[in-house]
Amino acid sequence: MQKTDEVKVMRDPIHGYIHVDEQVIWDCINAKEFQRLRRIHQLGGDFQVYHTAEHTRFSHSLGVYEIVRRMVGEIPHLKESLNEYEKVTAMLAGLLHDIGHGPFSHAFEGISALKHEEYTVKIILENSEIHHILEAVDPNLPKDVASIITYQHPKECMNQLVSGQLDADRMDYLLRDAYFTGTSYGNFDLERILRTIRMVDGRIVVKESGIHSVEDYIMARYHMYWQVYLHPVARSYEALLTVLFKRLKDLYRIDTSICEAVPMFAPFLSGEAASIEALYELDEAAALYGLSCLIKWKDDIAKDLSYRILNRKLFEYKTIRNSEDDKDIISEVEKLGYNPEYYVFHDAVSQTPYSPYARNENGHNIWVLEKDGSVVELSKASDIVKALTNADLKEEKKVYYPVEHLVL
Amino acid sequence: MQKTDEVKVMRDPIHGYIHVDEQVIWDCINAKEFQRLRRIHQLGGDFQVYHTAEHTRFSHSLGVYEIVRRMVGEIPHLKESLNEYEKVTAMLAGLLHDIGHGPFSHAFEGISALKHEEYTVKIILENSEIHHILEAVDPNLPKDVASIITYQHPKECMNQLVSGQLDADRMDYLLRDAYFTGTSYGNFDLERILRTIRMVDGRIVVKESGIHSVEDYIMARYHMYWQVYLHPVARSYEALLTVLFKRLKDLYRIDTSICEAVPMFAPFLSGEAASIEALYELDEAAALYGLSCLIKWKDDIAKDLSYRILNRKLFEYKTIRNSEDDKDIISEVEKLGYNPEYYVFHDAVSQTPYSPYARNENGHNIWVLEKDGSVVELSKASDIVKALTNADLKEEKKVYYPVEHLVL
Amino acid sequence: MQKTDEVKVMRDPIHGYIHVDEQVIWDCINAKEFQRLRRIHQLGGDFQVYHTAEHTRFSHSLGVYEIVRRMVGEIPHLKESLNEYEKVTAMLAGLLHDIGHGPFSHAFEGISALKHEEYTVKIILENSEIHHILEAVDPNLPKDVASIITYQHPKECMNQLVSGQLDADRMDYLLRDAYFTGTSYGNFDLERILRTIRMVDGRIVVKESGIHSVEDYIMARYHMYWQVYLHPVARSYEALLTVLFKRLKDLYRIDTSICEAVPMFAPFLSGEAASIEALYELDEAAALYGLSCLIKWKDDIAKDLSYRILNRKLFEYKTIRNSEDDKDIISEVEKLGYNPEYYVFHDAVSQTPYSPYARNENGHNIWVLEKDGSVVELSKASDIVKALTNADLKEEKKVYYPVEHLVL
Amino acid sequence: MQKTDEVKVMRDPIHGYIHVDEQVIWDCINAKEFQRLRRIHQLGGDFQVYHTAEHTRFSHSLGVYEIVRRMVGEIPHLKESLNEYEKVTAMLAGLLHDIGHGPFSHAFEGISALKHEEYTVKIILENSEIHHILEAVDPNLPKDVASIITYQHPKECMNQLVSGQLDADRMDYLLRDAYFTGTSYGNFDLERILRTIRMVDGRIVVKESGIHSVEDYIMARYHMYWQVYLHPVARSYEALLTVLFKRLKDLYRIDTSICEAVPMFAPFLSGEAASIEALYELDEAAALYGLSCLIKWKDDIAKDLSYRILNRKLFEYKTIRNSEDDKDIISEVEKLGYNPEYYVFHDAVSQTPYSPYARNENGHNIWVLEKDGSVVELSKASDIVKALTNADLKEEKKVYYPVEHLVL
């Protein structure tokens, strides 16, 4: 693999510096699909709660790359067992794992026929600037990078680095989102975790002496979910986006002039898979400009919802504990002159900080290396994690709806 | 003044929390002109150097408000000498001082007939949501707020709070920009400065015991200017914006179809002052979408420059120490097939960390209250500041130009 | 209560500043019994693991005072319900709660007939500089301060401030010990907890919106216990102190010349309660000097143990999981030529992060104020805390012993 | 050189971790002379101003070692030009450079015939545990380590690492003292300085791109001197120590029974050089215990001064601007019943943040590597440093004296 002339470094508040000395990494960073990530926020609607959560998937992707780079260079046994090609492949998978994201993250997937993971793989494998950079290095590189992202690389540890339970992706975003929201919930001791990770029998494990750091990391995840990612005000913003996109798709079926009003959304409204070029063009700048066009357009619902999104006239919310709790909401919304199909939104969220065996035995557990050399699943080694795993964690149901009629 | 039902707080990494308990402040924050600041980055092109510098004028404006709020509530003599109306007026001036910014800050002023300060005043005084909120509280409130922003309020201390040499604006942005770039240069001891500020004879002064904190703040300014605000890579991005805007104005004179291609820029191309509605609509989302439209448009220069801006194909730069240093650049640029009128950009920057008497005696000096009760200008009280003030600080001249021809 | 001429402030890394404006607080800080706390480390043997854990009970005591000061000045309902005298009493209790500590914290209590809490009360009530300062303000002040420290103040909330489950003492030491060890385990969001505390029916409660901060605080306690307070290397240091003190008491019974060799320890060797003057004189400087005297004294065991303590020749340790695990240790220690009575030390530690009803209903639970106005015990309101409370948390047994014979 | 079995790491708030993988380093850390540094505070009397400044020379010495370790392992050209033996020698010099310190740093040198640097060299070269550890590795190692500490190593860069103008000693103590005082003055960007250091022609230089970090470091030094190291309250504490030591030496000449009262001070009172064993035994625990003995002894002056030191009854101070300013002080002190010879103390302090050529050309300048490859002295390359170097920085004169007569 070709090295850069000198080590490139980029100042980063989470990692001190991001270090790049592989030419292919540098070229991918400068590719237009990667630069586009500067125009996709990391945290959807969370800036509506934490006003400084304005960071993008660009810096997060660099951070994931940096953690993978340290892992493949520092973890005993792992660093010796991977060759240069495999190390760079893992770093590229870390760097590119979010390249297929559309605007506003999860809400956008409501109109898109493909999920962001599918777009990520398509961008890597199809006719993109990223693809050509990878292919020029080695014809197998695109599919090898993609195989890590789909958790199908034949070397289990390669998959675990990027998307296990103790992976570079989660470790970067917890620290980064904590920093940019200004909360302390997401903090844990990354240095200590990296120092206590080992590879045993081709699997990433953490030494028993690092178990308290891992417990801290599990709790960080738990708190960040409730305090940041699932915050009802952020969900309210995403609810507005979801019902707006639903409205646009409904309009498309009866009046395709919507495609001229907001051409950036057009390729996504038919229900068929849009091209990677269409995704490239729909960054958040385009999407936000689209909203400002809708405010001036003829459909009252799209106008009202777009105005609410741009100007933070969010829906209110109410927690639903029994079936009576939302019974009057539809009629109240109708009284305000709104159509409940778009103006009443139900949401249910739940999360467990850590669930062993959730998907498959190897990739989705955290493994602990005990002093006697045996390897056990985390909830067997940690009383705290066992308690959390067995806990009966409640689901929260909420309904979102407007409480005032806007005059536009 | 009407209070909010309860104190509203917003988590902020710089100040811990932003506290709001005045209804008019809360209403202004929720006005559409203020919410638009979420779509204007604080630091123009600096995210090209420091990839996490993605924060916006929204959070900075809240921060300035918070510092003014603390000043009028905590500084001895000041807090007693201002009435409630004056305190809220000062807080509003802090909150709204940047409301007139266009996209990409300074580069944009190259095409705009009005400066951002002029738009700020117009938004406060004319037909805007902000104006109506202020006017409803007191018919004089809009002009009183504006008078602070233009440094013309009859009470000198009111002007100093927001735009003196030791003002809430600079104190917030140094700390905030340091945090979001991940550098340590902008740090200084805000708590200690706030604790040692006093009001003497209607003027903001700092006690002698706070002089080292002020020296530290002056040095923070110096370092942030060279390391962040005037960084040549950020200037290269702004150079591209400047020559693109120049191209758009030149095109407008010969072919007004440019107005259909990028309607968001149209009101600013004629050279006449655009309305505050036109400014409202030209946020950075609109401007970035405009660039993506220009990439597909017919003019090769606008296409090339827009592509460079969106995809970080920046101009290189060279420091000019004598007149020989740039003599071959024009011909080299021409050899690449580019028009030097748009592809060679000269820039000269300089800064002094602190210049007493730079504008007028009262507002633009920092005053020190000595132990014997006398008040002297800072460079008389601090050996370090005196040395800096007398230093022969050099101007840096650079030329920016492309080194490759892009094939689009 | 008499105010100081101006607010005294002391820079503090945890709280920014410690603020003092009550003369009696200032006088107590300057009393010789309080200044002595500068010579008592906060964390016993932890500096043997975390070399920067060199902070003292002096700064911790100021920190507890500062949190109490903020609580009685900021918490809604509480601040209105306490009069000036009660507020100052609570602040004094926070300031003075650790005044009776001997050297090396817990190990010392092995030779002392009185616990540190008993000495604290005696210093406040008997013939000390502190006592005279308090008494001069109000003859009831000494006993009122003492009643909070013994959790017997008639106003329940006064007791809770200083020694409940969510008290100023724990909140300061978790943050402070995390800072000075350089670990991140003890961090939690103090500001948010302070903002969500209320008083309801004379009891300190935390609003439901602060529940995640409290969960974070509970986990901080859990992690600090295992990673810092109960760290086996720190316990090994304390084991050495414990067996040395046992040796000194045993020697005293057969040869009182030990009293001339180490006069500072003499008053504590008989088994009777020593005076507060004797405690005053036995700070850690005296105790460490005593160890250096014992190194030159005639008893081989005292000499060896003192040498080990001063020069970090700690005992090794072994975890005991079943009764076989320590069976050979006594004979191995004897083979090294050591007396197992002093050279084999068994230790068992366990901890639960939070145990409702552990002592009594009111003081030792954390109470949550739900949105409907009801108050419930924390483990009823938090799934996580409920899981931790029900968890079967293991006790750890270890044996400590030397592995080399020192030649002195 | 023998490596340790595995890398030993110690958590450190300044450097994250201290890493040790050389056996000789590990053995020196565990030697009794090095462990003694846990009983010598880093900052003399500064804990009287900044109550958390309770850290010791033990952690500072580890920090200096860690920076040297990084320098010899990371700096381009330097790392290739030193062999293993030289690298370890440099690390040892960093680790051991403060091993000869007595209690209370500078004040103690008033009674000691030797300076701490001289004791450091004696401990390394004579009959100490440290010496034997070094000698066992290589008979030349003691003198090679000592040669760096005396700035006489034949390789100039080796001297610069530990005691140049941009050395590991200063860089650690500025950051560490800032952290433990809780001030922000000492902060600068260590990572960036380490990244921009190079070796050119056997000399340590800093690249032009690192010049702003170095300016920041110079200012950090300036502010730490005035705000911490030369703070008048800390000086007042040191003044008390100085006049007490003067009293002890005067007493020794007339009555050697002082040697029985405070045997730990005895070897230092005659004016002859005390042995390294005597220095070993006089740690701060012994010295503080000595003060408590003096409080009970017969000499009223020693009693009073010792009481003042232990219980923070400091001298007041007055700035002297002209010869009239202190004229009445002697008579006022006499009126209080005190002997002015011990109770009036004059002090003059001044400092320049950076003085080129102060001692010799190579070692005591900071050198800048310009982009064209030339090397210039810092004040030639930095306008700010040039201004500071030329500044007329004032000397501050103060007189310290008691304002109350203590009744003991």
Automatic annotation (TrEMBL), chains A, B, C, D:
Alphabetized InterPro entries for the sequence: dGTPase-like (IPR050135), HD/PDEase_dom (IPR003607), HD_assoc_2 (IPR045509), HD_domain (IPR006674)
Signal peptide location: none
GO MF assignments: dGTPase activity
Pfam family, one: HD
TM spans (from-to): none
Biological-process GO terms, alphabetical: dGTP catabolic process
Top-rank taxon: Bacteria
PROSITE patterns membership: HD (PS51831)
Domain HD stretches: 57-174
Name by which UniProt lists this protein: HD domain-containing protein
Organism field: [Eubacterium] hominis
